[in-house]
Specification:
The structure is a single chain. This protein is an alpha+beta fold. The chain folds into 4 domains: about 1-90; about 115-120 and about 255-345 and about 450-505, Ribonuclease H-like superfamily/Ribonuclease H (Nucleotidyltransferase, domain 5, 2-Layer Sandwich); about 130-245, no CATH class; about 360-430, no CATH class. The protein is about 40% helix and about 15% strand. The protein contains 20 helices and 13 strands. It has helices at about 1-5, 30-45, 45-55, 60-65, 75-85, 95-105, 130-150, 150-155, 160-165, 180-200, 210-225, 300-310, 325-335, 405, 410-415, 430-445, 450-455, 460-470, 480-505, 515-524; strands at about 115-120, 225-230, 230-235, 255-260, 265-275, 285-290, 315-320, 340, 365-370, 375, 385-390, 395-400, 425-430. The strands form 4 sheets. Strands 1, 4, 5, 6, 7 and 8 form a 6-stranded mixed beta sheet that branches. Strand 5 (about 265-275) and strand 6 (about 285-290) form a beta hairpin. Helix 7 (about 130-150) packs parallel to helix 10, helix 7 packs antiparallel against helix 11 and helix 12 (about 300-310) runs parallel beside helix 13 (about 325-335). The longest helix is centred in the last third of the chain and has 24 residues, at about 480-505.
């Protein structure tokens, strides 16, 4: 009730006008539907349960500004509302509208500190291995054709097909032994190509080729098999497209298989950014949803752009090492005026483990950028300086020292093990500004002052924990990235609603949970 008294209406119909036509029968208030959707995620309710709460609960009626005898609406309206948001590209409008109201109320401001982290989101599909995937993909196509064109499909079906694809394809049903399993996979490939050949034949109507399950089958077979004059062949792992471009499920083509810190999953990744000022509520300001193969570094610039567009650009953005490169630090500073606070990778050059005689890392060398030359600790100068690019297009500088200088050097054992017969020590440098930033950050992140600044990042782990426990963030209820992103946005908005309520009621932040066993250790 405090939220309604202090903030008034969180959402207005005008916020969602783009999703509704100007003419026709008046719709149920889009602003009310947005608020019900947020309350639904805050309390973990189904559409039917949320619609029932609108009719039954006084606190919901007060927040929605409804009469006590208001009859509410049918639960299917909530699904229609979400579909309209996705259809018109308004997945983030609910969060943006709430952030605008909170900014007007003085509860949210730009220019402070924000922090970001990511977590995995499981797709609403079964995780499949390669054999399960091809079998299930063919089964899905046969099911779709059996429903759409039963008379056309019936003559093609054999008893063997019914046995192989009549039930859910599961690993425990497969034959044992690598050679036998490979033969089974290639038999599935032959069956799939036979079906596709029939669909492409003159006896088939053209619209069969446009059935979504058939299009998925065609793409999957191009990825998993190759066909030549000798028959159908199961592709080796090295011949498969990269995971980012390869289908992982016939039922959700946006979901991909990803791995992060040893955890593998099929689905998506969500990135949450939140404010972390001590004198204001901690509010989620941005949500990014990507497929599971996208690295965190690929999202940093997008997060800054979206925060800039919402006029919620922070002064400091605290993130873990996954979001930080020298190029990102430079771009954040120059393009958005943001100090990107996060650790960069250490110099990985090493030749031994002798603590008394540590390896000579890149920091031990002096670079003269104007002269395009590097000097080693013993005073030798580099003899080669070439500008190159990685396969990804990232520019870099390769520097080489002469073998004649390195071979007799007394520091060689601590410096290089080069044995190519051409060069001695080699260095790889980033472009000048990036290299200088990299060296500065490597030195800075070793100081106690920087570590104290960085400590605030840990709090975002609690936000992810709260989102997982309260809104089931790590398991999407929908199929497809757009629907999953909308679910993530509603989850974030629901958390903001919960946190605003706690702030207005002076509820203190929770403390870190410590097990009884750990308490004994701390007390000792």
């Amino acid at each position: 009730m405090r939220i309604r008294e202090v903030l008034g209406a969180l959402f207005t119909d005008e916020d969602f006008a783009a999703a509704f036509p100007d003419r026709g029968r008046p719709a149920i208030s889009p602003g009310a539907l947005a608020l019900v959707s947020v309350l639904q995620y805050a309390e973990g309710l189904s559409d039917r349960q949320a619609a029932d709460q609108v009719r039954a609960r006084m606190d919901w009626k007060f927040l929605l500004a409804l009469e006590l005898d208001d009859p509410g609406f049918d639960f299917t309206v909530l699904g229609d509302f979400r579909s309209r948001l996705i259809m018109h590209g308004l997945e983030e409008r609910v969060l943006e509208a709430m952030l605008a109201r909170l900014s007007e109320a003085g509860l949210l401001r730009a220019g402070g500190r924000q922090r970001t982290d990511s977590t995995h989101v499981l797709a609403a599909v079964r995780t499949l291995n390669r054999m399960e995937f091809v079998g299930e993909t063919l089964r899905a196509a046969l099911e779709a054709l059996a429903a759409a064109a039963p008379d056309w499909l019936a003559p093609l079906i054999s008893s063997a097909w019914v046995e192989r694809y009549g039930n859910k394809v599961d690993n425990y049903r497969f034959p044992k032994g690598e050679n036998v399993r490979r033969e089974w996979a290639e038999q599935v490939g032959r069956d799939g190509f036979a079906l596709l050949d029939a669909i492409d034949g003159p006896a088939a109507v053209a619209w069969l080729r446009e059935v979504p399950a058939v299009r998925i089958l065609r793409r999957a077979w191009a990825e998993q098999y190759h066909r030549d004059g000798k028959g159908v062949h199961w592709r080796e792992g090295k011949d498969l497209p990269p995971a980012r471009d390869r289908l992982s499920s016939p039922y959700d083509t946006d979901a991909h298989y990803g791995i992060k810190r040893g955890t593998g999953w099929c689905g998506y990744k969500v990135h949450l950014s939140e404010t972390c000022e001590p004198d204001a509520p901690h509010l989620i300001t941005n949500v990014e949803t990507t497929n599971a193969t996208v690295n965190d570094t690929e999202v940093t610039a997008t997060i800054h752009q979206h925060l800039d567009e919402r006029e919620l650009r922070p002064r400091e953005h605290v993130v873990d090492a996954g979001y930080v490169t020298a190029a990102h630090i430079l771009a954040a500073r120059e393009d958005h005026g943001i100090d990107l606070v996060g650790p960069v990778g250490a110099d990985t050059h090493h030749n031994g483990r002798d603590a008394q005689a540590p390896d000579l890392t890149q920091a031990a060398f002096t670079t003269n950028w104007d002269a395009r030359q590097v000097t080693c600790p013993r005073g030798a100068s580099s003899v080669s300086w070439s500008q190159q690019r990685k396969a990804s297009g990232t520019p870099l500088v390769r520097v080489h020292f002469a073998l004649a200088d390195c071979d007799p050097c007394p520091l060689r054992a601590r410096c290089t093990k080069a044995a190519n017969g051409k060069w001695g020590r080699s260095l790889t440098l980033l472009p000048r500004e990036q290299q200088q930033i990299l060296e500065e950050r490597r030195a800075e992140q070793q100081t106690d002052q920087w570590k104290a600044r960085y400590d605030v990042r840990a709090g975002v782990e609690g936000t992810i924990s709260q989102a997982v426990r309260r809104t089931h963030l790590r398991r999407t209820p929908y199929q497809g990235q757009h629907k999953t992103h909308l679910a993530n946005v509603l989850s974030a908005t629901a958390l903001n609603l919960t946190r605003i309520d706690a702030w207005l009621n002076n509820t203190p932040l929770g403390t870190t949970r410590v097990s009884h066993l750990a308490r004994l250790t701390l007390a000792a």
